[in-house]
C-alpha cells in the first residue's frame, strides 16, 4: 500500500496541516468521522503520532493535498479507545497504523469532482448508520490499513508469532516468519535483514520471559524498546523497523535521522586533495579482500608472467600463494618483504577478509616502505554484504569446476559450498559503500577486478533458492555449532544434501555463468592498468589527505542569483506599479542575498540535497515572471529554464523570497499561491526577466 517510501518517516512533515484539517468544515460523513476520531485521540492525550506531508496545490480545484499517517505508539491506546467505543459505538475502529489522503478545499463552493463521490459515500454511510447504530463494522472496509513493512514486523512477525515462539520454540517461530515473508514475496536481501532482526528479538524476549511470553495486548510495550535499541545501531536498521520511541522524542529523532542520513551521502560532498604519491624508493603490496573463486590466483599468475610497466625502472615482482605456504601466512610475507629491495612489488595471493588482516597489511607496508593496494571483485553488493548474490554464485560455480587445487577447494571438496558461505559471511554487516570506504580510508587506493558483465540477465530463481537455503542453513549451523565444520554436528546430513543440490543447480546453469562473466583477459588488463596508474602517481591518494565539507553545515541546495540584478528588477516593478510601490513604502526591504531553493534537507531529504554536490558552480538560466505578496511576506515567482544538466527545483512553487515580517519564517513563502487563492495574497505579473543562477550548497 506504500506507493512512495517518502510517505514513511518524519522528514518533510508539516504538522500544522493536522490542525488546519481539524478546523475545516467536513464535506462528507466519512471526513466527519475521521475528524471525530482524531479529536478524541488528541483530547485524551493518547500516544499517537500524526505526521502530515504536503503533496501539492491544485489551482483549478482550489484544494490543498496532503497525506496524513496515523501511527499508534502504545498498546494502552487500544484499551482506552475500546472504552470510548463502548460509550460511542459510531466511532471508527482504530488500527495500528494507516494513512489518509486529505484535501482541504478553499472557498465556499464544493468542487464538482468531489460532490458526486463524497455524496455517494455519505449516503451509503448514512443508510448504514440508520440501519445499524453500530456503524463501525460497515465503515471498516472503507479504512485503508497501512501495509508498511514496519507495521508488518510489529503485527505479523512479532505479535502473531509470540505463541509459536513460546509454545514450539525458535525453529518453529523462524519457519513461521520465513513463510510469511514468502507469502509477501519479500526480497532475499530484505529477508536476510529481517531474519537477523527476528533472531535477536527471539533471544531477547525468551530470555526475559522464561515461561509464557507477553500477551497480544502488551507485546508492544516489550517490542518498542527492543526495536528502538535495534534502530539506534545504524541508519539501515532505522529504515527497516521504522520510527520507535515516545511521541515527545519526535523532533529530536527527526534531527538524528537527518544527520545520520547526512553521513551516508557525505561521499557526494567530498573533495579529495589532488595529492599524488611519490613512488620513488617505495614498494607495493597488492592484496585481495575477496572470496575464493574470484580469480585472484589467476590474476597474480598473469601479473608475474606479463607485468608490463609494473617492472619499469628496475622494479621486481614476486608472489606468495597462501595455499602453498606452511605456517602463518602474513608473518612469512613480512619476512619475504624484508629480504627484498624496498621497490619490490609483492602479490599477496590470499584472501584478506577482515579488518585485522588489513591492519596487518598496513603494518607490513609501514615496516617495508610500501603502499598497500587492495584489489576487490567489482560488485554492487547488497544492503548487508559488499558482494551481491550473483557474484557469490559465480565464485561457487568456478570453485566446483576446479581440479587439483593446491588448497583442496575444488570439485572434489565435499564442503566447498559451506567454505564459500563462510567467507561470504565474513564480510556481512557492511554494504558496498562502507566496505570500499573503509579500504580507501586505510590505504588510500582501491583497484576493482571486473567479474560480471554490466548488461546481464538476472540470477535464475533456482540459483537464488539454493543460495537462500544455504544461507539459512549456515545461520542455523553457526548458532548451534559456531565454527564447527559442516561435516560435523547435528546438521551434517542437511549439509550433505544441500552440497549435492548446489552442484546440480550450478552445473545446470553453466551456459548462464559463461555468458555473464567478464572475459579474463579483459579483467586482467583492467587490473594491470589501474596498478600501473597508481605506480606512476597518476591516481591521487584518497585517505588522510581527504578534505570533507561537513554536511551538518549544509541545509539546502539552491540557485544563487545576482543580488544587484534582482534589486534592479524590484525597483523597476515599484516604479511601474503603484501597488508594489505602496507595499515597499511601508516596509524596510534590504535584499542581502537571493536564491531559488532546489532541495531542502528538512523538506526533501538529505539525499535530494546531496545530488547537487557534483553540480556546484553550474550556471542555469532563471526566469522571473511575477511578484506575489501578502501582509507578512513577498516573493518573486521563478521558472528554471531548460538546461543540459536537467536541474530543477523540488519545490512545487519555485521562487525567490524577497522579504518576511518579524516572526515570519522564510519557508512560509512556499504557501503564497494558496494564500492567493484564499484572497490573503496578491499577484502582479510582469515581462519576464532572465538572470543567471549558480548551483550552490548553503
TrEMBL record:
One of its GO terms (biological process) is tRNA splicing, via endonucleolytic cleavage and ligation. It comes from the Eukaryota. Residues 551-681 form the tRNA ligase phosphodiesterase domain. GO terms for molecular function: ATP binding; RNA ligase (ATP) activity. InterPro entries: tRNA_lig_PDEase (IPR015965), tRNA_ligase_1 (IPR038837). Transmembrane segments: none annotated. This is tRNA ligase phosphodiesterase domain-containing protein.
Amino acid at each position: 500500500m506504500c506507493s512512495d517510501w517518502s510517505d514513511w518517516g518524519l522528514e518533510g512533515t508539516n504538522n500544522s496541516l493536522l490542525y488546519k484539517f481539524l478546523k475545516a468544515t467536513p464535506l462528507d460523513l466519512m471526513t466527519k468521522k475521521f475528524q471525530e476520531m482524531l479529536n478524541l485521540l488528541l483530547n485524551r492525550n493518547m500516544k499517537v503520532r500524526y505526521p502530515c506531508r504536503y503533496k501539492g496545490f491544485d489551482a483549478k480545484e482550489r484544494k490543498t493535498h496532503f497525506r496524513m499517517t496515523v501511527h499508534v505508539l502504545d498498546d494502552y491506546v487500544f484499551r482506552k479507545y475500546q472504552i470510548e467505543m463502548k460509550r460511542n459505538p459510531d466511532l471508527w475502529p482504530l488500527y495500528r497504523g494507516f494513512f489518509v489522503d486529505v484535501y482541504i478545499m478553499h472557498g465556499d463552493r464544493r468542487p464538482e469532482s468531489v460532490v458526486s463521490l463524497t455524496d455517494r459515500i455519505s449516503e451509503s454511510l448514512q443508510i448504514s448508520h440508520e440501519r445499524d447504530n453500530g456503524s463501525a463494522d460497515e465503515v471498516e472496509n472503507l479504512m485503508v490499513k497501512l501495509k508498511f513493512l514496519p507495521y508488518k514486523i510489529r503485527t505479523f512477525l512479532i505479535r502473531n508469532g509470540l505463541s509459536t515462539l513460546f509454545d514450539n520454540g525458535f525453529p518453529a517461530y523462524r519457519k513461521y516468519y520465513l513463510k510469511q515473508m514468502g507469502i509477501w514475496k519479500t526480497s532475499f536481501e530484505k529477508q536476510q535483514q529481517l531474519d537477523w532482526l527476528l533472531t535477536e528479538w527471539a533471544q531477547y524476549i525468551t530470555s526475559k520471559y522464561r515461561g509464557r511470553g507477553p500477551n497480544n495486548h502488551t507485546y508492544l510495550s516489550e517490542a518498542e524498546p527492543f526495536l528502538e535499541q535495534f534502530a539506534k545501531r545504524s541508519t539501515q536498521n532505522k529504515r527497516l523497523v521504522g520510527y520507535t520511541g515516545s511521541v515527545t522524542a519526535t523532533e529530536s529523532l527527526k534531527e538524528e535521522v537527518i544527520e545520520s542520513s547526512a553521513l551516508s551521502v557525505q561521499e557526494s560532498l567530498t573533495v579529495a586533495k589532488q595529492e599524488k604519491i611519490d613512488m620513488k624508493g617505495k614498494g607495493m603490496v597488492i592484496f585481495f579482500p575477496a572470496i575464493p573463486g574470484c580469480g585472484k590466483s589467476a590474476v597474480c599468475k598473469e601479473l608475474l608472467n606479463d607485468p608490463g610497466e609494473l617492472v619499469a625502472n628496475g622494479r621486481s615482482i614476486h608472489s606468495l600463494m597462501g595455499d602453498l605456504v606452511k605456517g602463518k601466512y602474513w608473518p612469512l610475507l613480512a619476512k619475504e618483504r624484508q629480504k627484498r629491495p624496498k621497490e619490490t612489488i609483492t602479490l599477496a595471493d590470499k584472501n584478506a577478509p577482515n579488518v585485522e588482516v588489513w591492519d596487518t597489511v598496513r603494518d607490513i607496508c609501514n615496516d617495508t616502505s610500501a603502499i598497500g593496494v587492495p584489489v576487490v571483485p567489482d560488485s554492487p553488493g547488497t544492503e548487508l554484504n559488499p558482494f551481491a548474490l550473483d557474484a557469490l554464485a559465480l565464485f561457487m560455480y568456478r570453485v566446483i569446476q576446479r581440479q587439483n587445487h593446491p588448497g583442496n577447494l575444488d570439485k572434489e571438496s565435499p564442503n566447498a559450498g559451506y567454505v564459500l558461505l563462510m567467507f561470504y559471511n565474513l564480510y556481512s554487516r557492511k554494504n558496498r559503500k562502507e566496505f570500499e570506504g573503509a579500504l580507501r580510508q586505510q590505504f588510500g587506493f582501491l583497484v576493482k577486478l571486473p567479474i560480471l558483465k554490466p548488461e546481464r540477465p538476472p540470477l535464475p530463481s533456482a540459483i537464488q533458492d539454493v543460495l537462500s537455503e544455504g544461507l539459512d542453513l549456515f545461520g542455523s549451523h553457526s548458532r548451534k555449532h559456531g565454527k564447527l565444520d559442516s561435516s560435523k554436528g547435528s546438521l551434517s546430513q542437511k549439509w550433505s544434501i544441500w552440497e549435492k543440490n548446489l552442484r546440480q543447480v550450478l552445473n545446470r546453469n553453466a551456459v548462464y555463468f559463461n555468458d555473464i562473466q567478464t572475459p579474463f583477459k579483459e579483467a586482467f588488463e583492467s587490473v594491470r592498468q589501474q596498478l600501473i596508474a597508481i605506480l606512476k602517481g597518476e591516481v591521487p591518494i584518497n585517505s588522510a589527505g581527504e578534505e570533507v565539507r561537513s554536511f551538518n553545515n549544509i541545509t539546502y541546495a539552491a540557485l544563487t542569483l545576482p543580488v544587484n540584478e534582482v534589486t534592479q528588477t524590484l525597483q523597476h516593478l515599484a516604479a511601474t506599479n503603484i501597488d508594489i510601490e505602496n507595499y515597499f513604502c511601508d516596509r524596510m526591504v534590504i535584499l542581502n542575498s537571493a536564491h531559488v531553493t532546489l532541495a531542502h534537507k528538512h523538506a526533501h531529504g538529505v539525499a535530494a540535497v546531496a545530488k547537487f554536490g557534483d553540480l556546484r558552480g553550474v550556471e542555469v538560466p532563471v526566469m522571473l515572471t511575477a511578484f506575489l505578496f501578502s501582509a507578512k511576506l513577498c516573493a518573486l515567482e521563478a521558472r528554471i529554464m531548460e538546461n543540459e544538466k536537467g536541474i530543477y527545483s523540488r519545490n512545487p512553487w519555485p521562487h525567490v523570497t524577497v522579504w518576511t515580517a518579524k516572526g515570519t519564517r522564510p519557508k512560509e513563502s512556499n504557501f503564497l499561491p494558496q494564500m492567493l487563492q484564499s484572497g490573503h495574497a496578491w499577484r502582479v505579473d510582469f515581462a519576464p526577466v532572465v538572470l543567471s543562477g549558480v548551483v550552490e550548497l548553503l
